[in-house]
Amino acid sequence: MASSKARSRNRSAASKNSRAAASKGPNSSRTAGGSSTGSPGSPQPAGQATASAPATAAGGQPKTQATRARRQPIAPAPEPVRPVGPPLWLQIVTFVLAIGGLAISSYETWAHFNGSHLLACTGNGSENCTAVITSPQSEVFGFIPVAILGLLFYVFVVAIMSPWAWQIRRREVGLLRLGSMIAGMGFVMYLIYAELYQIGSWCLYCTGVHIITFLLFCITIVSAALWGIGSAKKKA
Fold first, then answer.
1. Which helix (H) or strand (E) segment is 140 a member of?
2. Which domains does the chain have, with CATH numbers?
């Protein structure tokens, strides 16, 4: 009787041990599988994959720093500011030269009507101011003195070469300045020809006017090339 009870207790203990071993088997396999998640190639949890993936744009492109920098427009380099006209010092130079031409022309006009004797003009050799301003070539059409034409020309040149006239950036004013200097230089070329080949003498004061006219002509041409001759008048 006692031995049968002992055998029954042994069988119940063995069945409990077998059930406990069976219940521990899946847990140990799940633990082993969980520890292998850190190995390469093993799938990661969805939350971890989302956190480690780079941020993407709406089109699927990564929003990296370089991509955003390339998409920003590059501002064009500012163009150099071009002056609207010749500098003030050049305007003053032309004004001073014009006043000098007006002074010489005024003195020649006075000498033409007062004995044709000019200061520091000896009249010896090829340099003879009296012979030049009393020659037939000293009058246009036989009755208009060249000295008068030079005086009137330089009255206009003083006005058109003044700093106030330079500030008027109108095409009409620029063309008038350029045209007057071209015409004046052409007349100077004729006077030089008349002195050297027709009269055979040259005048010191006339040469001074010729040099001033040539300088003003060059400055006007260079100014028109660099800064233009002004803007056209806007139509209403």
1. strand 139-140
2. 88-227 (1.20.1440.130)
